[in-house]
Amino acid sequence: MASLRFDFNAYPYLTADLPGVEGVIRSRPEEFQVCEVPAYLPRGEGEHLFLLLEKRGLTTRAVLEFLRDRLGVPEEQIGVAGLKDKHALTQQWFSLPSRFEPKLEALQELPGLRLLHWARHPHKLRVGHLRGNRFRILIRGATAPGSAERVEAVLCRLAQQGVPNYYGPQRFGLGGLNPQKGYALATRGKAHTPPWLGRFLLASLQSLLFNDWLALRMEMGLFDRVVEGDVAKKHDTGGEFWVEDAEVESGRAQRFEISATGALFGRKYREARGVARALEDQVLEKYGLTRQHFASRRGDRRPIRLPLAEWAVEAVPEGVWVSFFLPKGAYATVVLREVLKRDPEARLEPAAEEGSQDL
């Protein structure tokens, strides 16, 4: 059976023919900036209070616990759209019942936290209620002649063909070993794992299988193509459909109008057919798994690629700043991996990383 350990360096690059640059990221939190782009702005009235918080060197969980313990907000009444990384300077929205507005001054007591804006809204903020994230990241040490031009070439290719929608290292835990634990749950049962942890570990296994499927498609030249039976996603509307005429629809894929989607296996999702289903089966068989092993998960589909927008490159004496926007669910580390031609997080201590849907 193939190894279940996540290895970011093992996956093919979309820009393998373009040289990378030398450098490191996250030398300081302010060199990895993330600004959450909400799906909607607060209306200015209602029973909930939306807070735009800037945090430096703090996990989302640390802020949530501070709101719970210092302000006295019941944890289930705190809303957040997504998780943000610790080793960064981030702007993120939280929500809490508006009755806690008189206590907002206490936010200044947590080092690294700053309140930028607040307003009322009728509803609690929910997970996934964001459009995406804007990133501004310094590649420190990328000072060799031509470094900025190399970065520009990579980002231009990604903007034209799409960013491979791999799950990043944050999804797989310390040493990339969470898929192994998820595999044990899928094949041998619950054991003594708490339900929330079981869901997390099985999601890690789902993510590894998706990454392997994406890598297989890239190796076969099917990154910007579709095959018979694919469940394709329309980038303008988000709608999905089964591909019947692969030759016709591949033209739309090459124009970046549609993309194939991969399975996050579960009990309820749109399943691929024909040739596309055989490719998914090939990944499952590599690990001795079947779709039935994921009956406890709901299931979903994830596009093979995502658009890269609002990108820019700026050379400075310390290196190169890169800026870009990614939709929710995407990982900035996937873009940086293409630029550096290696795992950009390899030198970080994995235990300090926070799992995220956005990074």
From TrEMBL:
Q: Does the keyword Membrane apply?
A: no
Against InterPro entries, the record matches this protein to: PsdUridine_synth_cat_dom_sf (IPR020103), PsdUridine_synth_TruD (IPR001656), PsdUridine_synth_TruD_CS (IPR020119), PsdUridine_synth_TruD_insert (IPR011760), TruD_catalytic (IPR042214), TruD_insert_sf (IPR043165), TruD_pseudoU_synthase (IPR050170)
- Kind of enzyme, top EC level? isomerase
User: By its UniProt entry, which Pfam families does this protein fall under?
Assistant: TruD (PF01142)
* Active-site positions on this chain: 85 (nucleophile)
Q: What PROSITE patterns has UniProt attached to this entry?
A: TRUD, UPF0024
GO terms (BP aspect): tRNA pseudouridine synthesis
User: Mind listing the UniProt keywords for this protein, alphabetically?
Assistant: Isomerase, tRNA processing
In the UniProt record, which is one GO cellular component term? cytosol
What the protein does?
Responsible for synthesis of pseudouridine from uracil-13 in transfer RNAs.
Q: What is this protein called?
A: tRNA pseudouridine synthase D
Instruction: Give the source lineage, highest ranks first.
Output: Bacteria, Thermotogati, Deinococcota, Deinococci, Thermales
